[in-house]
C-alpha cells in the first residue's frame, strides 16, 4: 500500500482545475455545442467567444474552490452531475430545466426504473466513475492559505477580465443567440442543471407558506343533475400528454382511434397542452388559467376544478395509474 501511495502522481491545484474545466467543457457538453453551432448560424467568432468565456468562468470558479479537503469532493460532484445530465440531454434531447428537476423529484420507482439502462450505466462509468477515481487517486499540491489565495487571484482575475472582454466584444451576436434560444445555457453542464435545481429548491421553499385562494365557492348543481331521478355519474379520462399529431381523428394515416370513431365523439382539434410533462400539463388542465397565463405558482395559489365540483356538492373520486394527481385532488 505504501508503494502504491508513493507512485501516486502529483499535480497542482490550478493545473487540476484547468484539466477539469477542459474535461467538463469538451466531454460533457455535446448537446450544448451542437445546439450552439445551429443557433449561432455561422457566427463562429461569437460562438467561440461565448465558449471560451464560459470555460474561463468555470476555471475561475473551480480555482476559487480549490482548497484542501474541498477541491476533490467538489470536482467529483460536478463531474457526476455533468455526466448524468449529458446522458439524458445527448440521448433523449431533454433540457434539465426547473420543470425537469421537478419531474425527477416526484417520479416513482416504476417510472425511474425505465431509465436505469445499460446505456446509462456505461455512460456514467466512462464519464463519471473513471475520472472521479483518477481525481481521488492523484495527490494535489496545495500552498499555504495566504500564498494560495494570492496565486489563485493571479489566475482568476485575468481569466474573469478576459471573459468579460470576450463577451463585451461580441455582445450583439451572443445576446441575440441567447435571447432567441433560451434553452442553450440550460444545456451547459454543470451550470445548467445546478441552476435549475437551485431554482426548483427556492420555488419549493417559497411554497411552504402558500395560501390557496378559494375558487367557485358558490358553485351549485345544475337543474338537470339536481332533478335527476337516479345518481348521475361522469367519468373524465385525462390523457394529458397524448400527441394530437398521432390521432387518426385528427387525420393521422394510421388508424389509432377506431373505438372512439365508432362512438361519434366530438374531437377538439385546436387544443394545446401547457407542457409535455405530467407535473405541468395536468395541473394546467384543471386550473382556472388559460395556457398563456398559466404558471405553477398561480396553479398552486388557487383551487381547481376538483375543488369547485366539491363546493357544488359533487362527490369526486380520483383514480390514477401514473404518479398521482400532482396536487389536484389534495383537498
Automatic annotation (TrEMBL):
Domain Sulfatase N-terminal residue range list: 234-326
This protein's UniProt keywords: Membrane, Transmembrane, Transmembrane helix
Domain Phosphoethanolamine transferase N-terminal: residue ranges: 57-201
GO biological process: lipopolysaccharide core region biosynthetic process
UniProt xrefs under Gene3D superfamilies: Alkaline Phosphatase, subunit A
UniProt GO MF annotations: phosphotransferase activity, phosphate group as acceptor
Superkingdom classification of source: Bacteria
Segments passing through the bilayer: 12-32, 44-62, 74-96, 116-138, 150-178
Signal peptide feature range: none
InterPro entries: Alkaline_phosphatase_core_sf, EptA-like_N, PEA_transferase, Sulfatase_N
The protein, known as: DUF1705 domain-containing protein
Organism: Rhizobium fredii (Sinorhizobium fredii)
Amino acid at each position: 500500500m505504501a508503494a502504491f501511495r508513493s507512485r501516486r502522481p502529483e499535480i497542482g491545484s490550478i493545473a487540476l482545475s484547468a484539466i477539469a474545466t477542459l474535461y467538463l467543457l469538451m466531454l460533457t457538453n455535446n448537446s450544448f455545442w451542437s445546439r450552439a453551432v445551429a443557433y449561432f448560424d455561422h457566427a463562429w467568432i461569437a460562438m467561440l467567444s461565448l465558449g471560451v468565456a464560459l470555460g474561463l468562468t468555470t476555471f475561475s470558479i473551480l480555482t476559487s474552490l480549490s482548497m484542501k479537503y474541498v477541491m476533490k469532493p467538489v470536482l467529483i460532484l460536478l463531474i457526476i452531475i455533468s455526466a448524468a445530465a449529458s446522458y439524458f440531454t445527448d440521448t433523449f434531447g431533454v433540457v434539465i430545466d426547473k420543470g425537469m428537476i421537478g419531474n425527477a423529484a416526484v417520479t416513482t420507482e416504476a417510472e425511474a426504473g425505465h431509465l436505469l439502462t445499460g446505456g446509462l450505466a456505461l455512460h456514467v462509468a466512462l464519464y463519471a466513475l473513471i475520472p472521479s477515481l483518477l481525481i481521488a487517486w492523484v495527490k494535489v499540491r496545495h500552498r499555504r492559505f495566504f500564498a494560495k489565495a494570492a496565486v489563485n487571484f493571479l489566475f482568476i482575475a485575468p481569466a474573469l477580465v478576459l471573459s468579460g472582454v470576450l463577451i463585451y466584444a461580441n455582445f450583439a451576436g451572443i445576446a441575440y443567440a441567447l435571447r432567441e434560444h433560451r434553452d442553450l445555457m440550460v444545456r451547459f453542464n454543470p451550470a445548467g442543471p445546478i441552476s435549475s435545481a437551485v431554482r426548483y429548491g427556492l420555488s419549493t421553499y417559497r411554497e411552504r407558506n402558500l395560501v390557496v385562494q378559494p375558487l367557485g365557492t358558490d358553485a351549485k348543481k345544475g337543474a338537470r343533475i339536481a332533478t335527476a331521478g337516479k345518481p348521475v355519474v361522469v367519468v373524465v379520462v385525462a390523457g394529458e400528454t397524448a400527441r394530437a399529431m398521432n390521432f387518426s381523428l385528427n387525420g393521422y394515416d394510421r388508424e389509432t382511434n377506431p373505438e372512439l370513431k365508432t362512438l361519434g365523439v366530438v374531437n377538439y382539434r385546436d387544443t394545446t397542452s401547457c407542457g409535455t410533462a405530467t407535473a405541468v400539463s395536468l395541473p394546467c388542465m384543471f386550473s382556472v388559467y388559460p395556457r398563456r397565463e398559466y404558471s405553477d405558482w398561480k396553479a398552486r395559489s388557487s383551487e381547481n376544478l376538483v375543488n369547485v365540483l366539491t363546493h357544488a356538492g359533487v362527490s369526486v373520486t380520483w383514480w390514477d395509474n401514473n404518479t398521482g394527481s400532482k396536487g389536484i385532488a389534495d383537498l
